Amino acid sequence: MEKEAKKEAFRKYLEASGVLDALTKVLVALYEQNDKPSSAVEFIQQKLGGPSLPEYEKLQAEMSELQIRYNELLAAHQEKCQEFEEFKNSHFQASTKETVEGGSPS
């Protein structure tokens, strides 16, 4: 009984959110096509506003390239931060040494 209640709740959710209506419209549009598309899935994706398979693959490749570039920039940033910290520490130590030895800090 609980399984049926879950199914009914899910159906109501799909109906309230407009999913059933959107899918019905797309399936009707596919049914009414005189020349059926070679890929029904791609037709449905396009009608629902998604990218075509070639567009999706292009976006995936672009995302992969951007992830690589991000990782490169992040590594360079971390390296520069480490260099800066080392510079700061060496400058602070030199300044402290001069002060302790009676020299004037620069």
UniProtKB/TrEMBL annotation:
<keyword id="KW-0539">Nucleus</keyword>
<comment type="similarity">
    <text>Belongs to the AMY1 family.</text>
</comment>
<dbReference type="InterPro" id="IPR026060">
    <property type="entry name" value="AMY1"/>
</dbReference>
<dbReference type="GO" id="GO:0005634">
    <property type="term" value="C:nucleus"/>
</dbReference>
<protein>
    <recommendedName>
        <fullName>c-Myc-binding protein</fullName>
    </recommendedName>
</protein>
